Amino acid sequence: MTLTVAHFSDVHLAPVPVGEAFADFRFKRLVGIASWHLHRKHCHSLEIANALRADIRAAAPDHVCCTGDMVNIASYGEFQRGTQWLKDLGDGGWLSLVPGNHDAYVTTDPDRSTGLWTAYFTGGSFNGSEAGSFPFVRLRRNVAIIGLTSAQPQSLARAGGTLGPAQLRDLALQLEDLGKRGFYRLVMIHHPPLPGLTIPARALTDAEALQDVLKDKGAEFVLHGHNHIYMLNSFATRSGMAHACATPSGSMTSGHRHDVAAWHLYRISRAKGFWQTDVSIRQWQQDKKAFEEVRTFTLTSATQPQEQGSHADHS
Fold first, then answer.
1. What angle do the packed helices 165-180 and 207-217 form, to 10 degrees?
2. Cα radius of gyration rounded to whole Å, the chain
3. Contact at 8 Å (CB) between 100 and 225?
4. pTM score, two decimals?
5. Do 211 and 292 contact (CB within 8 A), yes or no?
6. Closest Cα partner for 188 from 205, 202, 167?
7. Confidence class of residue 231 from pLDDT cuts 50, 70 and 90?
8. In 101, 216, 224, 232, which residue has its Cα 20 to 30 A from 283's Cα atom?
9. Do residues 104 and 73 touch, judged by C-beta distance below 8 A?
10. Using omega within 30 degrees of 0 as the cis cutoff, is the peptide bond preceding 135 cis?
11. CA distance to 25, 74, 83, per residue, from 121 (Å)
12. pLDDT higher than 70, residue 217
């Protein structure tokens, strides 16, 4: 039985009005708004983000996964616009989301920020925690979607993240249980899940611990974003090969050091006793003002893939 899953990340929705840096003043927001208007607004396009949304809807996947950074400085106006953008894409039963570091740019009132997105990360919890807690688990046919949050407010010079012992413990229990029950385990996280995939100031502080859990308990696929580049890294686990794949920013224009906007479509199936994931990369074509398929390949839980993604950080 095949399940199709769309993956996008880091849309960093525009615009970001200057006044929103002062409405609920935080010094970091002031720095962020300056960065946006001096540089980032020339990189991230609302036109491209909206085209990505339309392209995903036209592809009509069985499920959609977003790995965070919907906003920029975590202003309450951004969260309102982000909520409407997500609603225009699809409902909480069709779309799963985990927050990124920009969604936790500063400490906010949850009811006016990420709490508006609870419908997109509500799922079953291994330990019976309340709705909206992490890790969450959503079962779609023979695929288990497991959402982690690495988003925590950081100091001015950092853009990293942390899972913490409780999430790592529950993740280990979930992966083991779901593996025994025969599910394809699809893990969502914003930050790169393995050590060495970005500079320390931007990294997951407990990436080594997460890697240990994934290798020991097994997983088939890990979706992430954060670096604004395409990445593919594969590693052996107790249950076979696992693959960690990142999309570029979902709104990135061409002509910058980061990869141009793209999203991925995965077709998950089982063949000859192994999990198979057919990957289609759909990339923004500036001349055509549209997303088009530019590359396809297949990954399995059986063998090392032909290609390996760069471990270098381009963000």
1. 20
2. 18
3. yes
4. 0.92
5. no
6. 167
7. very high
8. 101
9. no
10. yes
11. 28, 18, 13
12. yes
Sign of CA dihedral 204, 97, 268, 259: negative
Q: Summarize the confidence of residues 281-294 as an average pLDDT.
A: 97
Distance (Å, rounded) from C-alpha 184 to C-alpha 17?
42
Could you tell me the residue ranges of all domains in the chain? 3-300
Please write down the HEC assignment for all residues of the chain.
Answer: CCEEEEEECCCCCCCCCCCHHHHCCCHHHHHHHHHHHHCHHHCECHHHHHHHHHHHHHHCCCEEEECCCCCCCCCHHHHHHHHHHHHHHCCCCCEEECCCHHHHCCCCCHHHCHHHHHHHCCCECCCCCCCCCCCEEEEECCEEEEECCCCCCCCCCCCCECCCHHHHHHHHHHHHHHHHCCCEEEEECCCCCCCCCCCHHHCECCHHHHHHHHHHHCCCEEEECCCCCCEEEEEEECCEEEEEEECCCCCECCCCCCCCCEEEEEEEEEECCEEEEEEEEEEEECCCCEEEEEEEEEEECCCCCCCCCCCCCCC
Q: Is 83 in contact with 95 (CB distance < 8 Å)?
A: no
The proportion of the chain whose per-residue pLDDT surpasses 90, expressed as a percent, equals: 79
> Is 90 exceeded by the pLDDT of residue 9?
yes
Task: Output the pLDDT for position 132.
Answer: 61
Compute φ and ψ for 252, nearest 5 degrees.
-75, 130
| Fold of the domain built from segment(s) 3-300 | Purple Acid Phosphatase; chain A, domain 2 (3.60.21)
Give Cβ neighbours of residue 1 (< 8 Å, ≥ 6 apart): 141, 142, 269, 270
What is d(CA 26, CA 189) in angstroms, rounded to the nearest whole number? 26
